[in-house]
Queue: 4 jobs
Job 1
Amino acid sequence: MATATEPIDEILKRGYDAGFITDIEQEYAPPGLNEQIVAFISNKKNEPEWLLEWRLKAYRHWLKMKEPRWAKVSYPEIDYQDICYYAAPKSKDDAPKSLDEVDPELLATYEKLGIPLHEREILAGVAVDAVFDSVSVATTFREKLAEVGVIFMSFSEAVQEHPELVKKYLGSVVPIADNFFSALNSAVFSDGSFVYIPKGVRCPMELSTYFRINAAKTGQFERTLIVAEEGSYVSYLEGCTAPMRDENQLHAAVVELVAHKDAQIKYSTVQNWYPGDENGKGGIFNFVTKRGLCEGERSKISWTQVETGSAITWKYPSCILKGDNSIGEFYSVALSNHRQQADTGTKMIHLGKNTRSTIISKGISAGHGQQTYRGGVKIMRGATNARNYTQCDSLLIGDQCGAHTVPYVDVRNSTAQLEHEATTSRIGEDQLFYCRQRGLSEEDAVSLIVNGFAKQVLKELPMEFAVEAQKLLGVSLEGAVG
Amino acid sequence: MLKIEDLHVEVDGKLILKGIDLEIQAGEVHAIMGPNGSGKSTLAYVLAGREGYEVTKGSVTYKGRDLLEMSPEARAAEGVFLGFQYPVAIPGVSNVYFLKAALNALRKHRGKDPLDAIDFMKLSKEKAALVQLPDELTKRSVNDGFSGGEKKRNEIYQMAMLEPSLAVLDETDSGLDIDALKVIADGLNTLRSPERAMLIITHYQRLLDYIVPDVVHVLIDGQIVRTGDKDLAKRLEAEGYAEVRDAIQP
């Protein structure tokens, strides 16, 4: 039976579908990082003085910080002076005012990615904010959203149009000095999305952002801020891809969510950054800080992520459950194939009474992939009757990969109830043979089994994203799902 | 339909099948009986194309083609079905979803349009009734948490859905109580047809009380030592395999 895993290995060696490079003129900042570059970015964006100061403060903090190395990932030293901190597609005049003014090549890029803006606009009713390298190129559906008072725009625009909101909330969940990568992001972030849902409004459509790193030797540092006022609801989706390049590219984003009393934020990610080739050459280093604050009573934040890309993933979307009776959820599917390494999980920090959190993590390792679930559940003294349920399952494909589980628990209130379940399984030759005997190809069989494994998480995604994620899981492991 | 000639098979370097000759025509039901370790399941797996079973000599011709050249899924597409002795569970994948994927893969191979969800569910209801498989089980994850009897009924339900030309049923009767056995036998009898051949592998003859075979073979130590009609099965039950074994020893 020595040959049993070989066909799987074969299928695992498929290509990366989003790895094309778009040929458009780019405007760069010179490589390297210093106070001038920070000022250059701020100036490019025509930012107010306070924001420049904020960036510089972050930069000075960052200089004193050390890159964290506690995660179970290994990668070469990053030379922060060899990275471009700003790259924008050069447009003839000013920023595009509508889709018609967007560079056709750029639109073709999204077309290739399967997100035709025009079509999405009309068919799916999804408002898309597309961030290409550092600048947000087009925001659709803005007018329709404005009718109900929802603000959905690029971060740069929000700085110009709603400075008071940005000033109030920026850094309120992830402080400047929170960690090395968030400090770096705070200093050099170039764009991202801003969402504000007013009191009592249920956002009438799914809000969606696509990120893509196109330029070589460029880092992407986007900043997303979502504020949901009392009794409001929003579902936000982000998707990410990058072209295939031999060198590694850095992505260090910060996402902050604030949910006030009775508000709900649902944040979904499908991450498909270039993972590098099968020998581990190239690929995105993904160091992301995502955190949500359940500020008010009965507020709820739920993170759903499908992580199939990136050479290195370092990401822990977390919830601070401050309001009494607030709820935090984390649903994750992470897949590492070839030489990919993922260290991902969540932190649930219970401060308020009767706060509840749920963690469902599904890790899939294939090839030489390494997968670590790292989770922290903290029940603080005031969190009477807090509850947490954690489930982490690992699925191994082949015998060269690894899965690790590192759950931290810190309970300071004796009324807390915590449950933890974990399983590890392997796709068996017997399962594959069973499927093939019924007529499914080996690829379809792997895909079927993997999607079955991930189903608990995939069902949390909005419908059209779930289909996309299901396909992506299939594609990341082989050809396509039937 | 199926012609096996001088088939020799090794597993992990050990010779298990030592020259099998067997011919099955469309519409026939053959039974293979034999004690544990005689090579019954090996024969089933070789016909279905499982890896790790090395054919060192001989041939298998199915509908005039070399069966051994084909991948497991190609064999399935050509109408070979294996009812597993120990069906595996696939957590998270619903039985109907799995079967719809399988059925449409087979239909595609046969140049037919895929069945849509409504037609599929209609067909599924009809076939599930054949083995009294509760609706609830068709929606649960494949074999996940099924009892032994439910798994076996699920195999026959799948067979009914996929409509194979050649069904190889590996100890479909093992672990069943008498009522379940009757249900399965009734299902299989309904599935008998002039176009379909069945190869029923069993340890005991009790299944053969309900599904009367056209031909019975006795497999011992990797060889077919006796071939006869349904009475052979009855004699075996009365006398035991030891008698046959003794009779063939030099």
Job 2
Amino acid sequence: MSKPQKQIHLAAHFPGVNNTTVWSDPRAGSHIEFSSFAHFARTAERAKFDFLFLAEGLRLREQGGKIYDLDVVGRPDTFTILAALAAVTERLGLTGTINSTFNEPYEVARQFASLDHLSDGRSAWNVVTSWDAFTGENFRRGGYLPQEERYARAKEFLATTGELFDSWQGDEIVADRSTGTFLQDAKAGAFVHEGRQFDIQGRFNVPRSPQGRPVIFQAGDSDEGREFAASSADAIFSRYAALESGQAFYTDVKSRLAKYGRRADQLLILPAASFVLGDTDAEAAEIAKEVRRSQVSGATALKHLEFVWNRDLSGYDPEGPLPDIDPDLGENHIARGRAQVRMYRDPLATAREWRALAEANNWSIRDLVIETGNRQNFIGSPETVANTINEYVQADAADGFILVPHITPGGLDAFADQVVPLLQEQGVFRTEYEGTTLRDHLGLAHPDETGGTERVAS
Amino acid sequence: MGRRIRTDLQEGTLLSASPSSPLHLAVALDGTGWHPASWREPVARPRELFTAGYWADLVAEAERGLLDFVTIEDGLGPQSSHFLDPDDRTDQVRGRLDAVLVASRVAPLTHHIGLVPTVVATHTEPFHLSKAIATLDYVSTGRAGLRVQVTARPSEAAHFGRRTIPRIEDYHAPATQELVTELFDEAADYVEVVRRLWDSWEDDAEIRDVATGRFVDRDKLHYIDFEGRHFSVKGPSITPRPPQGQPLVTALAHDTVPYRLLARSTDVGYVTPHDTGQARAIIAEVRAEQERAGRAAEPLHLFADLVVFLDDEPAEAAARRDRLDALAGEEYRSDARVFAGSPAQLADLLQDFQASGLTGFRLRPAVAGHDLPAITRGLVPELQRRGAFRRAYEADTLRGLLGLPRPANRYAAV
């Protein structure tokens, strides 16, 4: 104990609607019944995790013009399931991904303030933004938002909800029976917001909640997204769980804080991380290989290749060689409702590189997709995984991790039982919750103590 | 017991019940109660209105009384003593929590009672709301419903800034009727979208076919392709079909245009007759609208709303009402009939109303902390003695408690 060690933050991502989640495993349970969510949340709370995390997508994914049927499909409403989980947990933070494009500030602010009251201060909001007309087809506004305006909208959305949360100070309700005074301020909740995205005014109708405002997460990775996080978020849900890329991201984002008058500890970096445990490192590596094969069936491999080729490859044999035709360089239209399609910025180069890899290693299409796809971030015995996580956090690759199990709902159980006690023994993870709110768990000040999260100019 | 209801269903008529058949009871929860001075009663817990425990206690009490369901009031702006405009009053409860989230928060703590939050159709997204109520149905394993409401308040439109709603100056003016019709037509479209989205997944759409690698059979997922004046919604829902298939849809109505919404869109309508003659007239009007909408064969419960001050001694109830009115500085008025009296008197009144063709009641406790327990511990035993109310929950779902079958999916191939 020569130098003070950072305390690790841990969170649990409910398995999502992508191929990370292995629904074909005999142990896999329901992805929609409440009992699955309750099991998952209780495991996370038993392990003293900081919070549970839910992603969101507002339109079922399609590929080749048809609903994508190879991954888990279907999820609950984020707010509603989190409110129910507040009833079966006592301390666990409840983080929901809510879109700023297909919602309105007044309603989202009501829902988060309500969730914060109903959970005694455990709510958090992962603010995401989308612009696609595809998703817009489910909403009143339709596909109204140009891509370049989505962060402008998100920033103003967040700023506006902040004004709504702050429209109640917290001392308005006196409920004095003798004088008949319920409110000591007739103007409680009054707000006016005149901006480019929103021109609204009136009275917000939810009194100030225990955390003042929900904890704010941001997940975008672009320069704009990082700037948005540095200016306005309490935590980042990042994709860089490896040591070096994590350190680079960590340094980059934390260095952006000063210009907003913020300290490094006011923004937590929490990458999503998958894991596979075994009794030994060798066993874990074997299991991890099997899991990756389950995650990428032949059918899945072809669909993933289509993200790059941008054309129908259903005629190809997934156990055979890569297509010798080149990707369609037109607008990517093959897959809709997914973010990862945009990851391939130069499809021709990717195709050339993959063909070379496949030829050199004698890989089939399926082998290639497995080998080039995401490996699990932490693979090993409980000791190895605990040590690696701790090493990464102490080396400033992260402040902790949002763990993404591949089995619903029991995929977190072994981590809770085997890895968490080791981190606790090392003195880098809590053995009991020290506070009651999510801000307490994350070491974030209450907005009233800091004068509020720095406002974004709108 | 349930058999009479079942018979009515098979006849394909508006549900009705004879005086000897069981009646249905719901309670409308709103803050500390419906009387504006209710928060000043010693039994009230005004400082706990924004805690989960407060709502959990109320719903547990309602479930103790074997009630069919609770409704939870809501709105997209602060409560007001004016119909259309906000007020600056500080002597009444102001502020509330989102009703859907309150319902979901108490769902895992209860086991039988239905949970029916209010939702406002006017400024919100039917896609979001459909999955929210479907999720409430999952969380409660089949006890979810919604009460759909519209808002004509210009001040609430300004909270969204998406459209302006003209201020109603004269209720009988043609422009007013046009606005009201538009708002209720939008609500009917909204319910239509919500219902189609609930059906957009067939019950057996999730197949988990390891051999072909398919999690769902996409032929059993359906686009709803709704196009209306205020919104178009493509679908399918992101949430699978809820346990009840179609959670309960309810609405409160006082006039022809809203009666049309009951007839077109709901499973339970709340109406506000002040006597049995009015009750008969309202039932006839809703029935005619139901035929006009081509839904004559669909089961539709009609419940009367009543505000209740309930005490063992009738004089006590009346005195309590007077005392609260004095605190409020004005006589309490309501769209619904206001009852003050004993459980036996209320049971008589309910049975009289029931004889006119109503199948149930939504009681609005004047003081939640007093009148809700008076309903569950006074009225309910009185009705049970008369053989007019259940002695145990007889079904696992809210539709089941109301004698409503689980509907076939409109998109499923027969």
Job 3
Amino acid sequence: MTNLINRAKELLENGTVKVVIGYEAGPTGLARPAFITDPAKAGKLIYDDRCVQNLAVYLTKAEVKNLGKMAIVSTLPVMRSIMMLISEHQVMGDNIVVLGISTEKELLDIADIGVMKGYIEKCDLRNPEKDRETLAMLNALTPAERFAWWQKEMEKCIKCYACRQACPMCYCIRCTVEVNQPQWIPVQANPHGSTEWHILRAMHLAGRCISCGECGRACPVGIPCHLLTMQLADQVNNYFHVHAGTSDNMTSVLSTYEPNDKESFII
Amino acid sequence: MSDFEPKVVAFVCNWCTYAGADLTGTSRIKYASNVKIIRFPCTGRIDFMLLLKAFANGADGIIVSGCHPNDCHYTSGNFHAKRRWIMFKELMDFMGIDMNRITFSWVSAAEGARWADVVNSTVTRIRELGPYVSYKELVNKSVEEEVKND
Amino acid sequence: MARIGVFVCHCGENISATVDCGKVAETIGKLKHVALSTEYKYMCSDPGQTLIKEAIKEHNLTGVVVSACSPRMHEPTFRKACAEGGLNPFLCEMANLREHCSWVHEKNELTTEKAIDIVRTQVEKVKLNSALQPIKVPVTKTAMVIGGGIAGIQSALDIANCGHKVIMIERSPSIGGHMSQLSETFPTLDCSQCILTPRMVEVAQHPNITLYTYAEVESVEGFIGNFKVKVRKKAKSLDEKACTGCGLCTTKCPQKKIPNEFEQGMGMRPAIYVPFPQAVPNRPVIDKEHCTYYLKGKCKICEIVCPTKAIRFDQPDEILELEIGAIVVATGFDIKHADFFPEYGYGRYKDIIDGLQFERLASASGPTSGAILRPSDGKVPKNIVFIACAGSRDPAKGIAYCSKICCMYTAKHAMLYKHKVHEGKAHVFYMDIRSGGKNYDEFVRRAIEEDHVNYIRGRVSTIFERDGKLFVKGVDTLLGAMPVEIEADMVVLATAGVANSGAEDLAQKLHVSYDSHKFFAEAHPKLKPVETNTAGIFLAGACQNPKDIPDSVSQASGAAVKVAALFSQSELTREPLVAVVNRTSPPLYSTCVACGMCKPVCPYQAIELEEFKARDGRVVKKAARINEGLCQGCGTCVAVCRSKSIDLLGYSNNQVYAEVVALLNDY
């Protein structure tokens, strides 16, 4: 942590970056995002088990972006998010300094995007273990049981779109749910509207989800909606042998193809 | 359920399956009248949300059909569609939404008889499955809630 | 307020025999916004069309639905009728009651109900149609032909003879291509140079053709009718205007041991050279890689001997920026050099040569003045073996496809040999003889029957040399795979035809697709063999796949007609059914966030990211933009756009959504 603070301070002092995005302890003791612009305040930065949020979501926010060059405390999901955001032209690689954090909570020396790519390649890119277990449990159910399971979850949805807001990949300035010509998704938080919203969200993240689980964590009513995108992340790797967020030059699996893509259901 | 007439919507591309269905007509091959066709320039144009809209509006079954791989009028629209349907199918399966209600097929402009087969087998299958109660319930429950709230 | 007119056609009895047309018209007439719903026996007849035209005026219609046959049949007819009636043609839709209903179902209520559903769907769609105007794209009436072989020459001459300007680019110092290297041509055995050189001269002298040799395409931007092409004119180290082509420099150049490309390495050339005597233009270039002056800084003998002082050692490459309306790609092919077949010993044994080398040996202007002499000792080979399919039709070691021309040229080679060496023996190993074409099979029969060429059906497993003889070991499959061994003085390998070097690079510059063998890909294998998937770029000759001369010439003329058709009008009119990315006022500019997902899905490279700049030049926004000159309206980009910022005119989100709703709900 001292390393992290020193590095942040140094970057701010020598003017390399204008802001450091990291975590600080909030008044209740929970970790919350911090945006440090004053080197004297770099000491507020923390990194421990409480720091779970995917900070990459702030990289595309105008309020943060407009401050100038950014440094960002980056665990693996954040790094993978950055790769996706560069690939999708939302941020520029040379505008970001990555303060990489290893799984052992050590500060990594990520000099540039190339180094980050090398680091990511060596990591376990599968979904987190706990989620893999839940996914396996769900995949073992019958379709009818899965339908019932999900419908029970969907009933809770209040359509607050926290899942969308928390996701670094949901950066559109206008979401499909805000389109009313035609009204693609019913506005109401009802079984129909909620189900279609979650289908839409998962499809839009197919091949783009980097398995951070932030959407599920952000859900105020506890819908494990991250399982939807994680299931697709699994399938993307299964069918197309791709893990999202492994390079700064990724083309989305849904905007490319191989003539011999395998499937078994088209007659 | 013997008098159940399933409603089946077919989303087809203009250049292959629509033309193939035209050929079914010119060949006077009969098929079930439950299916109604919506024409798209290409399977690549077919938004997955439209399939959900069809179910929400009462469809019991859906056919999505276009040019065989390598035959796309626009060279690659069907390949993109294929990837889209792979993902869509996986997601629907995972959410327990019945993919037996959707037929994905490639029917060329020369396959008039095949189009009739695709329609008839789909209609037969949907007839066995019965009305798509669970999706209709989703919508109905929602409508009820709305009425209650009003 | 929409005022829709619906016209239900009986199509004689084709529709009315199974569908109750009266009920359809009546039910639809009760729908909101339907101003008129009527039926008629033959809508496509003159009176039928007049009915529509009059109704448009009388009822002030804002949309028309003709419920008749397939739109693939009569949509243009009825759209034209609407236009004549004063309604924008894109406000007319067709409901397919014949092919998709009356012809495929029994006569019953369900069929009529389905017909009503179909018509209702189109009524709801047409309400959301917008009046579209055809897209006009200006056309620069100058064509560029890339490649100066026979295909490029033919295309250029045809286009130029239509009265259009042509710029021809050739990367080597002379036009002529592979055809200029050939000795005789099948199946007539007329001399290749004799029929080609007049065409080459015609290109050079044609008032409409500008020829740039020793030049390559640097970059291509723009779209059909409006390409901007940068061409690198490589420095020839020569003032072409001052040079008279006397050739003195080429005889005095001290550097004389450079393998001659034109002779396929079977002869030598100096560093300042004209590739062959009939070259067009007949001016030398200095090969900088081998010139003593460029290598060592001194020599300049050519400069000293030049009577017109035309040598320019300090000449730089020149970049030409050209405005081009259409491009014909005619970059030709190459042959696979046989070194990939180690068991055949090419490169190891001097007397194993490839087909093009044999052409040079047999050519009257070649290194042996047309005498068939083996490279090792200059003796006349008494026994010669030709191996067809050396690499072709061999997915394991060579290429999977048939190179098409080898069967014919192998027969020609065997014949030429027999005509020159009467006592000699010619053997041909082959897999199948593919001699489809006018007088082609007769030609092969002549080789076998009149010139007594020994055709052996089977493959050669190995060739080895012993005591100055080449031992060719193979099997004769027509004799039950009996082993065959021939003692040969010379072996000619008909190696596979492959894509020319640099084809992939050029395809990428042109944004044209190419196949796994790096051959340029046509837009449609059957119906658009000359077009590429990039509008305004056409293919001619063997750059698409190996072709013989008549095929190349035919395709070249085909490509020329495509160009001439494009140039026949000063503006190109395109169907307005294209995709558009929305635009709004600043600071939003568009709901598009420039994620770029749509860009790779476009088969026509019609999507680019547009930058919006503030007054100080800062880029404040990026958004996708679709070039309506390139878009073909497939709509794949529309379906992948997450923010629904792209829509397809004619099949808009609103329209298709309304169709789904209308199809499934009675009103």
Job 4
Amino acid sequence: MLQKIYDWIDERADITPIWRDIADHEVPEHVNPAHHFSAFVYCFGGLTFFVVVIQILSGMFLTMYYVPDIENAWRSVYYLQTEVAHGQIVRGMHHWGASVVIVMLLLHTLRVFFQGAYKKPRELNWIVGVLIFFIMLGLGFTGYLLPWDNKAFFATQVGLEIAQQVPFVGEELKTLLAGDEKIVGAQTLTRFFAIHVFFLPGALFALLAVHFILIRRQGISGPL
Amino acid sequence: MHKGKGMKFVGDSRITADRKPNVPKDYSEYPGRTEAFWPNFLLKEWLVGAVFLVGFLCLTLAHPSPLEGMADPTNASYIPLPDWYFLFLYELLKYEFASGDYTLMGILVLPGIAFGALLLAPFLDKGPGRRPHQRPISVGMMLLALASVIWLTYESAANVDWESRAETNKPVPPGEQAAIDTEDPGYAVYENSCLSCHGDNLQGGAAGPSLIGIDKSAEEIATIATEGINSMPPDQFSGTDEELQQLVDFIVSVNEESGE
């Protein structure tokens, strides 16, 4: 039955070459933990992506309850934490995932760095990877404000004050992020929400796509 | 790929009519014990992922995500603190060479050099050798940066009393402020003895925790009011036994209402 459905689609869309492009690639011995235990260091990148998937899924469920508005943001998070079935687990996954993804990203970066795997011809992929790191830090900074509790509010205020001190563009940068020259309030929350949920994830997906395509085109770096 | 004359298409489309076989590549000619990604290696990857997920879920279940009280921009006594992975940048700004007149050093120059060097590492470290001992400068710089980041994060985190922070900033359930009866004789006593630390709505403040949602008996509350607890000094309450009774009744009644 499944085979017939596949054949029906394949006859019309010729998907076999696409599928074989995705599925067919070799895994060399030196990155396979089944043969060399130390090859577990090669899992860091994949696990980082795994946590990113957890973040995307748990974040999608969080937006079902979250209200990006200063009156209701905190209340909606509190309601999610105390009243919604498994709400605490879903928010917990998003909260801890934000920390774990930074840890895994750091480990992955260190693995690539100490193995010198960023050398020619992989310079471009290293740059894309560091940009992904920056995007992740941006996601952490913007997401920290969203529960609208005291630590969120005051940390963001400090962050914006630091942004303000950048020469020449500081004031504009702060206004762009906060939505107002002075107030950290309703505008800031909606802007951070939009940045956290639409702008940065969009950039993240594009960079991840480039990262993975480059890995597939270049193959994994050889043994030291 | 078959091209040109004799090619057959599906209908008037550009899809070729002869189907390609859907078979995996053969990796037997590859060096070493090379394995196919699909499905052999992916299954092993999923095993690692499953173990990782179990550990991650244990962490989530053991430590519920924290939530502090609703943001109060008028709270002047709150000490701001970023998430832990920004602590090292935050701590850097406390050094003399990175604050005051030299703030730009702390917010732009030093982080700019560090992250810029990270971004451009392939162009700074151009030699052919990949092994760490063949590129001592870049590896040394990375170890130095790593040690600084760990040290700064430790310095920043070690000086924070995380438990008392969490205790004083416990969330107050919404709608409970209204339950406080300021006409109660106990509130007058509360106003005199407790309000300065525990807030006008029992919501807590910088010096004292919230008194709403506490799990204490009337006797325990009376003891704490006279003898203190943890960082609360003794003799905070000064008055007659009758006033003490009114105070305790008031606090207990607020907690009973909020517990409903």
